[in-house]
Amino acid sequence: MEKLKFLIFCLKQVPGLSNQSILNVCQSVLETGRVTVSPEEIIHLANIQKKYEKKILTHLAYVENQRESFYVQYTHQPFITFLDQAYPTCLSQIYNPPVGLFYAGDISLLNKPAISMIGPREPTQYGYEVVEKFSPKLVTHPLVIVSGLAKGIDTKCHQEALKNQGKTVAVIGSGLNICYPKSNQRLQHYLMKHQLVVSEYPLNTPPYPYHFPMRNRIIAGLSKGTCVIQAREKSGTLITASLALEEGREVFAVPGDIGLEESKGCLKLIQLGAKCVYQPEDILEEFLF
Question: N or C: which end of the chain has fewer CB within 10 A?
Answer without folding.
Answer: C
